């Protein structure tokens, strides 16, 4: 196949960080979407500076030829009731449906250390410790996935550093214990590499159940420091562990990843989601670099 059923998006977290709002605090919503358009993307995810008034947001995006393709949902199935999770999930579904998105993303944050600046990301990661923990988690996720499916959206779960679904083994179990009609994967090559996994092998394994793809690269020298200095996820991001595809400082084999995508039936978005400190990595410069590189791989 070719890439005619695939569109390119970019995440606003490259301009303003949702978990550390001080990173990119100087970048306005208008600057963010202007530069998304300038760098050649046609879609985006939702950031903390995006207006929540649907007509206002639709008009601003339409003027720039942009489409909302996904938004992070913070699942708290390990710490809150399914009723509480369902309430927040449906509220976001309502918004995404209005915006024309087909995917609802996000990961489990209830027992995660991803947002804790003083907790080492590897040593403090969330865990599902018992069979009961796993059952509660996967049952709840399945129930939310049914709601999304019935409304024409796909729940694309994001494996993420610091959470209970971080490794390939944890992702395997998640996939095995959830209904393939209800639960899909938001594949992220950067998070798999960060976790010590082979992102190429993981994409080959999960591509048939992947509904959304995040593209980012890893700076291996920073990743080594994360291990050596027992850094938190937030400090790793602040210090530049992530970068965009096409950056010479990265190390992931994107040619191999794109060969898998080319040979698959994947339809949907490829989203550059490579959070960095905008003061160190100019978002427009890096977005342009990523777009050019990815389009070259898709040629």
From TrEMBL:
It holds the Pfam family AP_endonuc_2. Residues 39-287 form the Xylose isomerase-like TIM barrel domain. It comes from the Bacteria. Coiled coil: none annotated. NCBIfam families: myo_inos_iolE. This is 2-keto-myo-inositol dehydratase. It comes from Pseudarcicella hirudinis.
């Amino acid at each position: 196949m070719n890439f005619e059923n695939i569109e390119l998006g970019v995440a606003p977290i490259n301009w303003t960080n949702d978990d550390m709002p001080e990173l990119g605090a100087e970048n306005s919503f208008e600057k963010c979407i202007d530069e998304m358009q300038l760098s050649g993307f046609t879609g985006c995810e939702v950031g903390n500076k995006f207006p929540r008034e649907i007509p206002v947001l639709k008009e601003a995006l339409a003027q720039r030829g942009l489409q909302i393709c996904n938004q992070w949902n913070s699942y708290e199935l390990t710490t809150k009731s399914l009723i509480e999770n369902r309430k927040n999930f449906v509220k976001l579904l309502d918004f995404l449906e209005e915006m024309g998105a087909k995917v609802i993303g996000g990961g489990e944050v209830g027992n995660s250390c991803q947002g804790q600046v003083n907790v080492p990301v590897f040593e403090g990661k969330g865990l599902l410790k018992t069979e009961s923990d796993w059952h509660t988690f996967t049952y709840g996720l399945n129930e939310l996935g049914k709601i999304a499916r019935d409304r024409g959206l796909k729940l694309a779960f994001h494996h993420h550093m610091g959470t209970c679904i971080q490794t390939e083994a944890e992702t395997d179990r998640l996939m095995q214990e959830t209904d393939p009609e209800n639960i899909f994967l938001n594949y992220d090559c950067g998070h798999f590499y960060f976790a010590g996994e082979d992102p190429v092998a993981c994409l080959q394994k999960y591509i048939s159940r992947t509904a959304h793809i995040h593209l980012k690269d890893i700076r291996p020298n920073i990743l080594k420091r994360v291990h050596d200095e027992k850094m938190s996820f937030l400090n790793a991001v602040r210090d530049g562990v992530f970068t965009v595809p096409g950056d010479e400082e990265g190390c992931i084999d994107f040619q191999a990843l794109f060969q898998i995508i080319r040979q698959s039936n994947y339809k949907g978005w490829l989203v550059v989601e490579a959070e960095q400190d905008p003061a160190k990595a100019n978002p427009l410069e890096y977005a342009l670099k990523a777009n050019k590189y990815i389009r070259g791989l898709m040629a």
